[in-house]
Specification:
Bound molecules: 2-acetamido-2-deoxy-beta-D-glucopyranose, zinc ion
Strand content: 15-25%
Shape: globular
Low-confidence stretches: 1-32, 109-113
Helix content: 10-25%
Number of helices: 10
Number of strands: 23
Strand order of the largest sheet: 2-1-3-5-4
CATH class of one domain: Mainly Beta
């Protein structure tokens, strides 16, 4: 038995574009049926019952759960998601609880099942018992097949589709209460669930038929959810690695270039051994904030937040929250590429500009402006400049760092200033090496080069401090 879902977590927002405003939203929205406090208490209760084995209220008719049990379960949940372990339902805890996710619990029976359930054979069969009307049968089959391939590429397992008889893994789109004591909850909230390897219902996968299932970046991409659920069908539990496929919350990634992350490869190979392929697959590893050699690709402010870009991820540092949040770039901006190289905020225009190679994009808040990407030749760069290392905006000027030189763009005259490029140390004494990333805050430029950052005071025109880059991520 894998899931104990009962009531829907109410979902104020599931669209990444709204994340920025979610704090204000959840405070401002009228809350039907109860005060915000009661509503939050119910959300916490439901979430912990479903995913953290909190005993259900009502089943024990005499007593309610004691507050200390809830605090312990809340801490366990906060530890899983890398939140501050306060045992209190902080705003960020409530936000995580409202994200769309898998219905399989993060702790409890599933992970503790004695003997780590696994399939005895490696040649497994599957059958699609019930389809969704939202996609053609052919499209469902393509997504399912591709999702199995994610796992067969990384292990000795094979998957064969059958259309009659008893398969190992039964797949069905079902809604509401569907006879396994784990009802679905309508749109959003719980998207799907799956059962660990075994006879009968073991290995089976159910998708919530009330979700909108897609083949693209609109919520929810069937291939991505299926690949996650099949991990459970094969015996994997949830991972705390936010980049892993087995992370419980949904995050969009481009299916056409999808490669199984290393964390999941390690998981499946621990159970079934290496791939039958002579060349073992390797997958992307999630950057860890406190890795002492961590470097950044680009950094910018955005309406008071600071965004730190790295490969296909960015960390988001909110001024009021201690925690920094790691996100996929594709979760917020499905059309942006990975590996953003430079970024700056133009506070007057209220736009953030992101650069990769010869292209750049403009963001208004978390939305990409129409008409982008555009070419950096707009700024007057010669064609010899193929990429920008770092950029920062100050007053009416934008500084671009390319190799060991700096260019300065005049935003009023809309042209590159004469006399540039200049050597970086001639403009910024003390900044001797290439710049990976730079941003401006309170008349200070923070230059990042390798694992160090340099505080450059614009008034004093000198470096006033050098420290580890990842101090910005609370390390
Ligand atoms: C899987 O392999 C085993 C052993 O080789 C065999 O007995 C079984 O019939 C195979 N099952 C399928 C579905 O091919
Ligand atoms: C995804 O596909 C659906 C159905 O084909 C379509 O309505 C929707 O606009 C698409 N979304 C994107 C972001 O392309
Ligand atoms: Zn799951
Ligand atoms: Zn089910």
């Amino acid at each position: 038995m894998a899931a104990f879902a009962e009531k829907a977590p109410f979902s104020l927002r599931t669209l990444p574009g709204l994340l920025l405003f979610s704090v204000q939203l959840s405070q401002a929205l009228p809350v039907p049926g109860g005060s915000p406090g009661e509503k939050n208490a119910q959300l916490v209760q439901d979430y912990l019952e479903k995913f953290y084995q909190l005993p259900r209220e009502g089943l024990r008719s005499e007593r309610q759960n004691s507050p200390s049990v809830i605090v312990e379960k809340l801490k366990e949940m906060q530890r899983f998601f890398g939140l501050d372990e306060t045992g209190k339902p902080s705003q960020e805890t409530l936000e995580v609880m409202q994200q769309p996710r898998c219905g399989v619990p993060d702790s409890g029976d599933f992970m503790l099942t004695p003997g780590n359930p696994k399939w005895k054979e490696t040649n497994l069969t599957y059958r699609i018992i019930k389809y969704t009307k939202q996609l053609s049968e052919a499209d469902v089959e393509t997504a399912i097949k591709k999702a199995f391939q994610v796992w067969s590429n990384a292990s000795p397992l094979t998957f064969t589709k059958i259309s009659q008889g008893e398969p190992d893994i039964k797949i069905a789109f079902v809604r509401g209460d569907h006879g396994d004591n784990s009802p679905f909850d309508g749109p959003n909230g719980i998207l799907a669930h799956a059962f660990q390897p075994g006879q009968g219902i073991g290995g089976d996968v159910h998708f919530d038929a009330d979700e909108t299932w897609t083949q693209n970046s609109s919520n929810y991409n069937l291939f991505l959810v299926a690949a996650h659920e099949f991990g459970h069908s094969l015996g994997l539990a949830h991972s705390t690695d936010p980049g892993a496929l087995m992370y419980p919350n949904y995050a969009f990634r481009d299916p056409s270039t999808y490669t199984l992350p290393q964390d999941d490869i390690n998981g499946i190979q621990t159970i079934y051994g290496p791939s039958s392929n002579p060349i073992q697959p390797t997958g992307p590893t999630t950057p860890t904030a406190c890795d002492p050699s961590l470097t950044f690709d680009a950094i910018t402010t955005l309406r008071g937040e600071i965004l730190f870009f790295k490969d296909k991820y960015f960390w988001r540092k909110h001024p009021q929250m201690r925690r920094v949040e790691l996100n996929f770039i594709s979760l917020f901006w499905p059309s942006l590429p990975d590996g953003i190289q430079a970024a700056y905020e133009d506070v007057d225009k209220d736009l953030v500009f992101l650069f990769k190679g010869c292209q750049y994009w403009a963001l208004s808040g978390y939305d990409i402006e129409q008409g982008y990407p555009r070419s950096i030749s707009d700024y007057g760069f010669p064609s010899s400049v193929r990429a920008i290392d770092a950029a920062v905006h100050y007053r009416t000027q934008t500084y671009f760092f390319v190799n060991d030189e700096v260019w300065r763009y005049d935003n009023e005259r809309q042209s590159m200033e004469a006399g540039y490029p200049k050597s970086i140390p001639s403009m910024f004494p003390g900044i001797e090496s290439r710049v990976d990333a730079v941003f401006q805050q309170n008349y200070v430029f923070y230059f990042f080069s390798g694992p160090r950052y340099y505080t450059f005071n614009l008034g004093a025109q000198r470096v006033t401090k050098i420290d580890r880059s990842n101090k910005w991520l609370n390390c």
